[in-house]
């Protein structure tokens, strides 16, 4: 990659427990609390934690964010592993949680 960031955000149409289950199913990508390494790292930020700890939104803004992002957001810092291996790891973890 040249001129691009290796950081991705995504959400799933899953509840909090199922979202955390995804992280437990990953084999290559490492669960981390700090992103920035040469290996792929992922963190899950539940929407309720986001509102409580990170931002100040009024009720209307919170409702809009929740409609868009759902229960929470995954942040994936893509490392230097083979792209097919990263994709395969995400695919098998998603398949495992249904």
Could you explain the architecture of this structure?
By secondary structure, this protein is an alpha+beta fold. The chain has one domain: Aspartate Aminotransferase, domain 1 (Alpha-Beta Complex), CATH 3.90.1150.10. Helices cover 44% and strands 18% of the residues. The chain has four helices and four strands. It has helices at residues 16-25, 47-53, 59-69, 83-97; strands at residues 7-10, 30-31, 41-46, 72-77. The chain has a four-stranded mixed sheet with strand order 1-4-3-2. The radius of gyration is 14 Å and the shape is globular.
Helix and strand layout, with pairings?
Blueprint: E1 7-10, H1 16-25, E2 30-31, E3 41-46, H2 47-53, H3 59-69, E4 72-77, H4 83-97
Parallel strand pairs: 2-3
Antiparallel strand pairs: 1-4, 3-4
Helix pairs in contact: 1-4
Overall strand count: 4
- Shape verdict: globular
The gyration radius over C-alpha positions equals 14 Å
Q: What is the CATH superfamily classification?
A: Aspartate Aminotransferase, domain 1
What's the structural domain tally? 1
Uncertain residue ranges: none
The CATH class designation is Alpha Beta
SS class: alpha+beta
Described by strand count, sense and barrel closure, the largest sheet is:
4 strands, mixed
Order of helices and strands: EHEEHHEH
Figure out the total of helices.
4
- Looking at the overall shape, the CATH architecture is Alpha-Beta Complex
């Amino acid at each position: 990659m040249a001129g691009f960031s290796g950081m991705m955000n995504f959400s799933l149409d899953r509840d909090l427990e199922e979202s955390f289950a995804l992280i437990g199913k990953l084999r290559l990508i490492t669960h981390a609390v700090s992103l920035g390494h040469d290996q792929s790292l992922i963190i899950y930020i539940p929407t309720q934690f986001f509102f409580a700890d990170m931002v100040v939104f009024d009720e209307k803004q919170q409702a809009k964010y929740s409609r868009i992002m759902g229960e929470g957001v995954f942040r994936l810092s893509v490392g230097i592993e083979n792209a097919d291996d990263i994709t395969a790891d995400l695919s098998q973890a998603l398949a495992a949680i249904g």
